[in-house]
Amino acid sequence: MAGSICGRDAELATISEFVAGISGGAAALVLEGEAGVGKTTLWKRGVDETREHDVRVLEARPAESETALSFVAIGDLLDSVLDEALGSLPAPQRRALSRALLLDDAGPAPDPHAIGVALLNALRALAEREPLLVAVDDVQWLDPASAGALSYGVRRLREERVGVMLARRTPSEAALVSELRRSLPAARLTTIEVAPLDLAGLHRVVQEHLGTVLPRPVLREVHAASGGNPFYALEIVRALQRTGALVDAGQPLPVPESLRDLVHGRLLVLPPESRDFLLAVTAHAHPTVAVTEAASGVARRDGLAPALEAGVVELDGERIRFTHPLLAAGAYETADPDRRREIHTRLAELLEDPEASAWQLAASVSEPDEEVARTLENAAVLNAAKLLVDIETDLGRLDREV
Predict the structure, then answer these.
(1) Domain count, the chain
(2) How far is CA 180 from CA 27, 40, 62, 282, 398, in A?
(3) What are the distances in angstroms from CA 18 to CA 37, 47, 165, 169, 309?
């Protein structure tokens, strides 16, 4: 298994127990904590350990920019098993799910109830072949349509070999987590409160990630300033290393008090071309290298390479991911507002999905715009018309059945 996770023995034991029990019936595990405390690290470990137990993993890592889109997370979850999942469904459910995932634009917009039923039956069919884990990081960013379909499906699972593992940033709310707490028996839902690290745990984190052994007085200052939050602590030590600052015992750390300022400082040392490239990454829900190059006008070698070397982003195939959501937020916040609007305008032109394009168009303006408003209104009318046709189709089918 990958490198050790410092100071989390109890949490890791709970995750291992959850993974081992997936074959015994449906259950859920929720990891909760503040930004930077280590939820995603534990979530990743759970995913890796699950795969080692020959359990199939369906995973999604939604971003804040995706919340305005529909069924994005469902598409991510089913991406690796799409043909198998669709092939297991009756024709009406297969058509509904295909339309929701933009695989088929024929016919009316899918009914959310039909998508929930289709997802439930797809999970059941997959779990009959082998145990299954549905893993969602940053569940607070799930788009409402995906959250609704998952809520419908998961709360109806009983003996199926399906585990659900979610990571939620507090104090943000997550509709899926709230629904699971209302509907699942206590014995089937485990919550891990991911707390700040103690002094010894933080020492090991700094040593392992940065190869630095801090003098104990300095370590105490870092621990106090970070509140035991490992991400915050690492950014503080990086800032000290970057500036070459010396710290005397008992003296305040010569770094910004705000985590936001620390994150911004880490990004601002990157070349301007790389920061421009990262702006296009964070402005798009599913940033690939090709789309990001086209939107930013910055080549991969100039934009992506420095960010990869600095550990700000990582590659998953051709898809680009920030190594931490706070870095994504910082990349957007530090950009020039005019440049943000240019990037959103370019993405609106590049993206084929009408809903995604409309969202980018709305983000490209800073004040009321008649043309943008008309475009959004037309999109809303089109969606409403599709929904009406879908309702009429369902009513017609019910009449025939009666």
Answers:
(1) 3
(2) 10, 20, 19, 30, 31
(3) 21, 11, 9, 20, 35
- Cα–Cα dist 152/154, whole Å: 6
This prediction has a pTM of 0.77
- 18-76 pLDDT, tens digit per residue, is 999 999 999 999 999 998 899 999 999 999 999 999 899 999 999 887 888 889 999 99
Average pLDDT over every residue of 101-105: 80
Distance CA 17, CA 10 (A): 11
In three-state secondary structure terms, 358 is helix
Whether residue 394 is contained in a domain is answered as no
| Exposed / middle / buried, residue 258 (Cβ in 10 Å: 0-12, 13-18, 19+) | exposed
Residues 330, 346: Cα–Cα separation, whole Å: 21
In this structure, are residues 207 and 222 in contact, taking their beta carbons and an 8 Å threshold? no
Question: Phi/psi of residue 350, each to 5°?
Answer: -80, -35
Residues 204 and 189 in one domain: no
C-alpha 109 chain-centroid distance: 25
Asked whether 142 and 154 are in contact (CB, 8 A), the reply is no
Domain span at residue 172 reads 10-193
- Specify the amino acid at residue 340: R
Structure letter (DSSP) for residue 163: E
Give a yes or no: residue 323 inside a domain. Answer: yes
Q: Edge-to-edge, what's the strand order for the sheet holding 189-193? A: 56-60, 132-136, 162-169, 27-33, 189-193
Would residue 88 count as lying in a domain? yes
Residues 93 and 108 in one domain: yes
Asked if 63 contacts 137 with a C-beta cutoff of 8 angstroms, the reply is no
Contact 49, 19 (CB under 8 A): yes
Pair of tokens at residue 370: 């008649």
**CA-based end-to-end distance of the chain:** 57
Residues found in the chain:
402
